[in-house]
Specification:
This protein is of the alpha/beta class. Helix content is 35%, strand content 23%. It is built from 13 helices and 17 strands. The strands form 4 sheets. Strands 5-4-13-14-15-12-16 form a 7-stranded mixed β-sheet, sandwiched between helices. A 5-stranded parallel β-sheet has the order 7-2-1-11-17, with helices on one face. A 3-stranded antiparallel β-sheet has the order 8-9-10, with no helix packed on it. The structure holds flavin-adenine dinucleotide. The site of flavin-adenine dinucleotide has 33 residues, from helix 1, strand 3, helix 10 and helix 11. Belongs to the aromatic-ring hydroxylase family. TetX subfamily.
């Protein structure tokens, strides 16, 4: 039976879901708020794990293309202390394909392929159990009904209120993201410092992480514990929403005062700054099943970014797609969604606990905690 299925959101969760359904020859409507695929910068690099993101791509028939695009050497990880001493310098084996990196933009284009996404279709509300099915309201005032609406619309989901009253709360940790372009030619010293993958420096309640993307692009994340309004306290002239890049830069340099000069060059040469306070949903977020509506990815289980959110989102998207495509009738569709939710909640709950504990140790009053965590998880 051909169910009327809509997925709200064209991120890793929504596109993987749609792509697997497409492969199984089941129609799906993909509704994305952004007006076009390149309407905003796609973000940094993602490492896709063999048994999560890569498994999802294999279910979508895209693993070989991923392998051609991804960067196994990007798994390299270097840790420095705040005076610039290298404490760990881990290199993957040449054949290591456990967690290769891919730019988010490349992943999005790979998943998009020939999918027919409806761009510029922001959803405002989802009303379950109307006479004709689940009713979706759009920002432009239009409405449509479906048999199943899948909320893959991220942290601030507009679908989530149809199943749950949970809202994200601030973790107490903020990221400020900046970028360096063409690092190998314009900043060769920094290129050497970062290496082929990621470099991290951990201090008291703060960290600086630099990650190589493709084409000599580097994303730098300044991470620190602070109240949400930290920038107004720090300097009354510094507003992150303002375009005063130099004020933001000097505010950040003051926060990391005393760190080694080559490390601080990551902030000195950064081009623009993006404020990303880290929000999370309650660990083990679940809800009473609502027929016709479910959630995937960050909409269901927003957690600290410790390298697993996109992986879970993609695996869930692929698994739900296979289950609903195999469900012959309306009752089977509902049973398939229920079973999927139970499996998602159990797995995401385990990862949310790990990611929450991980964030406590990575941005910690005791910087040796970050090193200990690295030693626990990194293969020797
Ligand atoms: C700095 C940082 C680094 C990270 N690094 C990693 C990593 O290395 N590995 C990893 O696995 N995870 C990582 N994550 C986590 C990862 O980014 C998320 O878990 C992942 O993007 C979740 O995918 P998603 O599809 O659920 O949501 P999103 O990626 O947020 O996509 C949601 C989509 O829905 C659209 N949308 C939103 N609202 C509406 C609406 N009302 N109507 C229609 N469309 C809407 C949005 O425009 C967007 O396209 C990182 C996160 C951060 C912040």
């Amino acid at each position: 039976m051909r169910h009327r299925i809509a997925v709200i959101g064209g991120g890793p969760a929504g596109l993987t879901f749609a792509r697997v359904l497409h492969r199984l020859d089941h129609p799906v409507t993909v509704l994305e708020r952004d007006p076009a695929p390149d309407a905003r910068p796609p973000g940094g690099t993602l490492d896709l794990h063999e048994r999560m993101g890569q498994l999802a791509l294999s279910m979508a028939g895209l693993l070989a293309e991923f392998q051609a695009l991804s960067r196994p050497e990007g798994q390299a990880m270097r840790i420095l202390d705040t005076d610039g001493t290298v404490l760990r310098d881990w290199q993957p084996r040449p054949d290591d394909r456990a967690n290769p990196e891919i730019d988010r933009g490349q992943l999005r284009d790979l998943l998009l392929g020939s999918l027919d996404v409806q761009w510029g279709r922001g959803v405002t509300e989802v009303v379950p159990e109307t006479r004709d099915g689940v009713l979706v309201h759009f920002a432009d005032g239009r409405q449509e009904t479906f048999d199943l609406v899948v909320g893959a619309d991220g942290a601030w989901s507009r679908v989530r209120p149809a199943v749950s009253s949970a809202t994200p709360h601030y973790t107490g940790v903020t990221l400020v993201e900046t970028s360096l372009d063409d690092v190998d030619t314009r900043h060769p010293d920094l290129a050497r410092l970062i290496g082929d993958g990621s470099m991290a420096v951990y201090g008291v309640n703060r960290a600086l992480v630099a990650q190589r993307n493709s084409g000599g692009h580097v994303k730098v994340y300044a991470q620190f514990r602070a109240p949400l309004d930290w920038h107004t306290n720090l300097d009354r002239h510094m507003g992150l929403d303002s375009v005063d890049v130099e004020a933001v830069r000097s505010g950040l340099l003051a926060l990391f005062d005393g760190w080694a000069a080559p490390v601080l060059d990551l902030l000195r040469h950064g081009t623009a700054f993006v404020h990303r306070p880290l929000y999370v949903l309650p660990v083990s977020h679940t809800w009473a099943h609502v027929p016709g509506v479910t959630l995937l990815g960050d909409a269901a289980h927003l957690m600290p970014p410790l390298g697993v959110g996109a992986n879970l989102a993609m695996l869930e998207g692929a698994e739900l797609a296979e289950s609903v495509a195999a469900a012959p009738g309306p009752g089977d569709l509902d049973e398939a969604v229920r079973a999927f939710e139970e499996q998602m909640w159990a797995r995401a709950g385990r990862w949310a606990n790990i990611a929450t504990a991980g964030l406590e140790r990575l941005v910690s009053p005791d910087p040796t905690e970050a090193l200990a965590l690295f030693d626990e998880v990194q293969p020797s």
